[in-house]
Amino acid sequence: MLDILQKEDMPGRVKALAPYFENAVHGLKGAKHVADIRNYGLAAGITISAVPGEPARRPYEIAMKCWDKGFYVRYGGDTIQLAPPFISTQAEIDRLVSALGDALHETA
Fold first, then answer.
1. What does the buried/exposed string (b/e) look like for 49-82 if buried means 16 or more CB atoms within 10 Å of the residue's CB?
2. Which DSSP helix (H) or strand (E) runs through 8?
3. Where are any strands of DSSP class E within 1-108?
4. How much is the pLDDT for 68?
5. Residue 108 per-residue DSSP state
6. Contacts for 29-38: CB closer than 8 Å, 24+ residues apart
7. Hey, is 51 helix, strand or coil?
8. What's the pTM value of the predicted model, to 2 decimals?
9. d(CA 105, CA 87)
10. Quick one: fold of 2-106?
11. How many CA atoms lie within 13 A of 43 on its CB side?
């Protein structure tokens, strides 16, 4: 694995793609249920406002809507976590963030 990381310059690919990912993810600012967004490289955490008395319910529902759209996103507590593969393209980032935006909008 380390040989592939070095041979295919994966750190360089991540460094080049990270600003695009950051802009895409932060484009969800102000979306329904989004309380906070933070990222580092190709990792992002999106804090979701809780349903009163059920803090993990909404992130779960959002994650399941993303699953129905063909994307696996991690969820836990009050967050949705994204970590696309190092080989992702800008178009794939766009599809992921668009699906997440739709899932946020569709969730009560």
1. ebeeeeeebbbebbbebbeebebebebeebbbeb
2. none
3. 34-40, 43-48, 74-76, 79-82
4. 98
5. -
6. 31/101, 31/104, 31/105, 32/104, 32/105, 32/107, 33/58, 33/62, 33/104, 33/107, 34/104, 35/78
7. strand
8. 0.93
9. 28
10. Aspartate Aminotransferase, domain 1 (3.90.1150)
11. 3
Task: Report d(CA 5, CA 10) in Å as an integer.
Answer: 5
Q: What does each of the 108 residues of the chain score in pLDDT, given as a tens digit?
A: 899 999 999 999 999 999 999 999 999 999 999 999 999 999 999 999 999 999 899 999 999 999 999 999 999 999 999 999 999 999 999 999 999 999 999 999
Instruction: Map out the domains of the chain as residue ranges.
Output: 2-106
